[in-house]
Amino acid sequence: MRTIIISIGDELVLGQVVDTNAAWLSERLVELGIVPEYHQAVPDNLAAIAETIKLAAQKADFIIVTGGLGPTPDDLTRQAMAAVAGVKLVLHGPSLKKLETFFKERGRVMSENNRVQAMFPKGADVLDNPIGTAPGFRIVFEKATIVVMPGVPKEMKLMFERHIVPMLTTRNAWLKIKSRSKVMTFKLNVFGVGESLVAEKLGKLMRRDRNPLVGTTVSAGIVAVRIRGEFIGGKTGARDPALPAMRKTADKIKCLLGDAVFSENDVSLAEVVGKMLRSARKTVVTAESCTAGLLAAMLTETPGSSAYFLGGWVVYSNKMKTENLAVPADLIIKEGAVSEPVARKMAEGALERSSADYALALTGIAGPAGGSKEKPVGTVWIALAEKKGGGIKTYAERFLFPGDRVSVRERAAKSAMNILRLRLMPAKI
Amino acid sequence: MRTIIISIGDELVLGQVVDTNAAWLSERLVELGIVPEYHQAVPDNLAAIAETIKLAAQKADFIIVTGGLGPTPDDLTRQAMAAVAGVKLVLHGPSLKKLETFFKERGRVMSENNRVQAMFPKGADVLDNPIGTAPGFRIVFEKATIVVMPGVPKEMKLMFERHIVPMLTTRNAWLKIKSRSKVMTFKLNVFGVGESLVAEKLGKLMRRDRNPLVGTTVSAGIVAVRIRGEFIGGKTGARDPALPAMRKTADKIKCLLGDAVFSENDVSLAEVVGKMLRSARKTVVTAESCTAGLLAAMLTETPGSSAYFLGGWVVYSNKMKTENLAVPADLIIKEGAVSEPVARKMAEGALERSSADYALALTGIAGPAGGSKEKPVGTVWIALAEKKGGGIKTYAERFLFPGDRVSVRERAAKSAMNILRLRLMPAKI
Lengths: 429, 429
What we know:
The structure is a homodimer of 429-residue chains. With 429 residues, chain A is an alpha/beta fold. Chain A has helices at 10-13, 20-31, 46-59, 77-85, 93-105, 153-169, 195-202, 242-257, 269-280, 294-299, 318-325, 329-335, 340-352, 405-424; strands spanning 3-8, 38-42, 62-66, 89-91, 119-121, 125-127, 136-141, 144-149, 181-191, 213-219, 222-232, 261-264, 284-288, 309-315, 358-364, 379-388, 391-400. Chain A is elongated and about 85 Å long.
């Protein structure tokens, strides 16, 4: 079923508000087996709305429209829909009554403006809005069925579940979904390997004619390998015949990328590391210079992180490095604050001053200033110290992160978590 | 100038990622006096991309396309653009060279896949990408000028400022911006007052028929009061006749909201606090429990923050509070870790252990677990200690933040910065 999502509102086209409705609707539609053709956001302009709807009706069987159903003069979606369908707006008695009750119950006076919210294009079916003043409606234009809902996310979501989902899924659905193809999506998260190298390793798996289809996107240093399967006539449920094909593709990818795959779907790096620490009954502390608390903040994003995260030091000034973590002042002078020995001393100092099993330390140049030829902006030393047989064993690694200050700091903190993750991985025989 | 914004990516149409690029581009375009016709998001499908571009070219003079320029086989924007223009993709020597250097400098091997990122539709002008591997390009198709940029927000934003803004604003701009109404926007940022109270205080200023128009949006605890003026035939530049009207409205708002207005346009709370500390030649340290480094990380987002931020302690466990900041263990037992005396002791302990002038401390319940009737989730104590006449003076305040773990932590860190901001404000006679 060809489906198009249209969002209406000046605030979207002016960039004052990000359109989250379209993404939410897409996600729900995909879960129901429908992949939208496109999203479009148009202003509160009668002609523009009408033109957009007409064009969409030529291309799709099903159109979801949100926004422009408010009571004010800039809300024009119902007028545009009436114009498209070539009908008048008519007053819907039950809706007017509900509207009046809505205001009465809240001790508010209904303004004359609100009356328009009980008006619908002639022939439309009204879709009740249980939590707001703007009901939606359904109308058929040419071969397309169009549903219109308010743009307030909370109201739209509730109405989608209550009215649209049953339309799409019940046996005697008003829309005959012909030999509907079912779409499933699945995501593997990869860290420490660039997007192009991932693609190279995956090779033929990324061919565009493959099913399941494999694609990659990158965000804040994490490469998401997305698997999308399209299955004609597939059934939903645990015994879904589509599942093995998806799983097989995921397994192939895991095999090709190895330890770089850290999680599936929406599980973060911090969650993975937390789970590993928890099951190993180990604890960690942090010693941060360039990231200045970002690593500690990331590690504690997960509820219950106090089970494995004890605390940390933000030693931004050299004096604090020396006074709080006993990094020798002359070492800093000799090697520089961004150096392997300083990173090691920071990690070891943190470990010694706590009861933790591991200490992660970072020192680097986040930029934009402070870089040199030997130590350009983006240079970060990360050290992992751990208690071992009465002593301390320390590992250190140098990184050169691309991007601006925000990127360098974020990648550095994630790389530190990744070092600990790799350390906590079970040994392979 | 009729302008259309097109975003490309399966992840957008599948609802896995919210399209923030289109909103950002719109906001910037509006600031430059251009109101886009519409936004459209299309999947990584050559035919769909080509069809969308062709249609847009019939309706617009200027088209901004983002996404689909990565190195992998699902990145098809450059191929689609070549198909639209009816030309081949050709290798661009200087871009290939830059690409090779990019990888070399980072000690990484360039994969064969990356070569495609140096290929462009024949006749296109290459737009350099200073921080990523995907350059953009500009191409003319029929009457429309099309610019294509990568979808990575950071790269796209930088390239927009560097390449697109000059195209649109220089005197001999390749695009003639014909006489039209000019839109200006301006933003005041407010902290510590809710959106509805802001609206109540602003009263008539928020009438929808007013010009400049005043609206509010809220994000992560910060209320943005947006002023949007529409001026027919206005000119750009410092002597712009539109400016006094905008400025007058802004002044009225500042007067009504007082100290709650902390900055204009895109200046963050951390930047404001940093500037105040710097000009007062004062320094700060942090002691964090529930925020676990988030405050320190926020304070150091601004380049050059080492001038006023020395470092901090993340004392997540009670043991670390006692061992590192000398918070008495029996005090924690008696009052609880989330209490006024513990917050005070944390701030004072941090101040005593550093050479800073101020110490900010936070202890609270970020949730989802750990709440009680007396101390529900969202309860946070914030203390500010400062050196005063040989001793220490400490201020403490209790907050109850709404929302989930992420919100509570973010609001807590911002509230701590706000307390310091208010402390640093010049006294009013």
